Amino acid sequence: MTKVRDLHADWIKDPEYREEYERLGPEFDLALALIKARTQAGLTQEQLAARMKTTQSVVARLEGGRGQPSTRTLEKVAKATGMRLKISFELDESAV
What we know:
It contains 5 helices and no strands. It is mainly α. The chain has a domain at 26-88: lambda repressor-like DNA-binding domains (434 Repressor (Amino-terminal Domain), Orthogonal Bundle), CATH 1.10.260. α3 (45-52) packs across α4 (56-63). The N and C termini lie far apart (42 Å).
């Protein structure tokens, strides 16, 4: 069975794939941060959804990187997981 990381290692050699992957990087990072917050809090998607007063499918969409959550939604996730939301701007060395 082929693993995703092995496929990615091959695909990343393709300039078109690499460009799109890098373009989507921030969305992947946000989805990963949401998953980490939930799992560190020891919650299932369903439990997190209940604390946020939403549905499990909404949490799944957030964690799947589909859509861009508002800061209000991110605050709800932070509160529901016992964390504090911190947003920052960092210099993009590639843009300089």
